[in-house]
Amino acid sequence: MPDIIAASCRRTCAKSEALPIRRTLHLSCLLLTVFVLTLLAGCTAPPPPDAEDEALLRDFRSLAFQTERPVLGNDGRLRPRRDHLAKWTIPVRAALVDGDSEDLRAPVPPSFRRLAEAHLEDLAGLTGLEISSAPASRANLLIFLAADPFAAARRHVGLFAHKIADRASYEALLAEMERSANCFGFLWGGWPSGRSIDFAVAFIRADRGARTIEGCLVQEVTQILGAMNDLAPTADSVFSDSGRQVALTARDRLLIRMLYDARLKPGMGWAEAEPLAREALRELRRGG
After folding, report:
1. Is 60 exceeded by the pLDDT of residue 168?
2. Residues whose CB falls within 8 Å of the CB of residue 193, separated by 6 or more in sequence, listed in order
């Protein structure tokens, strides 16, 4: 009997000792399988970048980190190209001004007023900015309509003279644009100090057809929100000077929403902003 008990005990102990060994072997095989699969996944080539996303990012970098012409820095000196992101972070108070009149109370044509107000409302929706009307003396966004916008810039310079640090540089830049530009704008802030844009002026020609006036208004007012460059003439965009588009395209609207994504801050360089812009683009594309 003792032998039987002992034999029974040995069989029971052997069986109970074998269970942990089998569990260990099973776990080891499972971990090895996971390791191999992970290794294989790491060897798999990543998917190629989406061509449309890359094109959108190139356009965004061009619009938000470059300018079509030299600009005045906060010190009043000409800067060859902007290299920091600039955007508004404060409420925008806009005034429409008849640039051909000395009287700031002179009404602008109702059709232009309706066009400007509709575009500003559209931009408020795209950017999340608070945009409202204000008298010219208290506005931080002045929009002039004038047959000769360059004469208007000189006639009404008192409205924004407090923002001009270097009058000679301003006059030189204005004279340069007078030789080639139809419509133009100035903005202050955003580079290189990292401050937001705090003041802007746009000048729109009134001696052109309705389509040209609309295109000038939409392009200039949108650009002084921070998209300060032109795109290629072949681009399907109001930022192209080809004149084919006079209203914001779906692509333009996406680029503006990227610029005003909360993760992108005034003063950021492209190296810092690029991964955030990619993330914003992915989310916007995913959301339609």
Report:
1. yes
2. 74, 267
